[in-house]
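User: My instructor asked us to take a sequence, write out its structure as tokens, and then describe one feature of it. I'm not sure where to start. Here is the sequence I was given:
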Amino acid sequence: MTEQTITLHRAPKAPVHPKAERWSVDAIEALFQLPFPELLYRAQIVHREHFDPTKIEFATLLSVKTGGCPENCGYCPQSAEFDTGVKASKLMELEEVLFAAQRAKDAGATRFCMGAAWRAPKDRDIEKVADLVRGVKGLGMETCATLGMLEDGHAEQLRDAGLDFYNHNLDTAPEFYGDIVSTRDYQDRLDTLARVRGAGVKVCSGGIVGMGETVRHRAGLIAELANLDPYPESVPINNLVRVEGTPLADQAPIDPFEFVRTIAVARITMPKARVRLSAGRQQMGEAIQALCFLAGANSIFYGDKLLVTGNPDTEADMRLMQRLGMSPAQQPPGKT
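Assistant: Let's start with the prediction itself. The structure tokens for your sequence are:
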């Protein structure tokens, strides 16, 4: 696929895009429109150039501070604006987090991500999370955190504590973003990614599909991610989990083949990234998950809960891996 030059949404305060875009929205939308077998074939070629297609990275995500978030993201059960039954909690203690991380490691996870429902952590919050990062790093695991928007100096503090990855999803295309959340804008997202990259921390950034967006919007999301310089090392693709009490609770599910197409397009446009099946795996079923692996997904969130929503349990995941002849990547810490 010939890479094209186009001007996409830019971030004047956060120069994370190169001057010449590698992928236009039109070119990415054309990938989405390919016949399904052709798209998967192209994705498989790219995948095999950079990864063993039989290996899957196992990562675990723990909510270390749940609920009470002042943001109004329409998909999120942790927003204080929505009545979803999620109770706000304080930041977990170090001993609790280390216990969960050790369990995840014993179950085969190599990366441990800690999520906190903040709009933007305060300096004292960063100091506490840094202690958690040091503790998990001491267990020999890769570390990741998702804490909301970061201010100047925060990414450096987390880096110095041993943070390998910072997750901050773009969620969707710039032109659709305002339909999903109004308490922040797209520039805020890009500014945080620029701070993370500037501190030398690896970037984990993806989005959510099934929120009522068009194919063009999905192409716009992938273009934003693929044109970051460099593009994220990890790209989580979430299938909307419809939670009662959120504005998107009654949103019609995305066609599962459209979800697989999104995985394939992410793989083609970001060849060396870990493309991760994230939220919504429980609703996909095993056959769709298998198609996602064929399309280039090579990472999953592993465990019985993903922040506050369900996830396939670890035994079910291992049985699926065995049936497909696949196995955990077992990568050493610090590698992607």
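For the description part of your assignment, you could build on this observation: Residues 36-50 form the longest helix (15 residues). Try explaining in your own words what that tells you about the chain.
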